[in-house]
């Protein structure tokens, strides 16, 4: 793919991601995406055979942005790193527009029952969880987590606390549920040491 082609594809995906986040997947037509980004149908169909493939790319786009906004996830080697990760998550949602909805959560709410997308969404969440699990494996290898602890299960629990807290924080326009969910998750993780 040429650099110009990459920019065109990225523009289509980025525009689709913005529109789907704001209006939902069902309300975001291919024509609306193309009009908003200034691309033509031939360009769209050069990169994506149909809307389903575009939604697949949008899910990947959301995951990439979520992980990029949480750089501590790649550096989890001590308990203080988990605290730093939680603060990074909270900082994202402390802004004037926050607490903002999780883009993966939005798509999961709309398309999670659709088998075409449920697997992709699960894979995205597992990638996110996997970063937490990796850090917990590091802690276990260092003797800072019990040898019988299950890093994957603990990472899943942390994600449940994060997603549930985030959904309630967004609906209530109050960051407290997210703060409480993350504090509960980190406290539970630390009790496994």
> Which geometry do the CA atoms define?
elongated
Distance between the termini: 48 Å
Helix content: over 70%
For the largest beta-sheet, the strand count, sense and barrel status come to:
none
Order of helices and strands: HHHHHHHHH
Number of helices: 9
Strand content: under 5%
Structural category is: mainly alpha
What is the residue-averaged pLDDT?
95
Radius of gyration: 18 Å
The total strand number stands at 0
Residue stretches low in confidence (pLDDT < 50, at least 5 long) are: none
Domain HTH tetR-type: 6-66
Keywords: DNA-binding, Transcription, Transcription regulation
DNA-binding region: 29-48
Pfam families: TetR_C_13 (PF16925), TetR_N (PF00440)
């Amino acid at each position: 793919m040429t650099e110009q082609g990459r920019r065109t594809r990225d523009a289509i995906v980025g525009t689709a991601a913005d529109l789907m986040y704001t209006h939902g997947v069902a309300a975001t037509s291919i024509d609306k995406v193309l009009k908003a980004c200034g691309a033509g149908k031939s360009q769209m169909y050069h990169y994506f055979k149909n809307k389903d493939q575009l939604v697949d790319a949008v899910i990947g786009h959301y995951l990439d942005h979520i992980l990029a906004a949480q750089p501590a996830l790649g550096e989890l080697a001590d308990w203080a790193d988990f605290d730093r990760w939680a603060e990074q998550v909270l900082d994202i949602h402390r802004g004037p527009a926050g607490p903002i909805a999780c883009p993966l959560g939005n798509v999961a709410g709309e398309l999670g029952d659709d088998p075409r997308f449920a697997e992709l969404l699960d894979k995205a969440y597992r990638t996110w969880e996997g970063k937490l699990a990796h850090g917990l494996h590091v802690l276990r290898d260092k003797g800072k987590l019990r040898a019988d602890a299950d890093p994957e299960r603990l990472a899943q629990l942390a994600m449940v606390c994060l997603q549930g807290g985030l959904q309630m924080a967004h609906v209530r326009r109050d960051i407290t549920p997210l703060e409480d969910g993350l504090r509960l998750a980190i406290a539970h993780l630390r009790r496994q040491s």
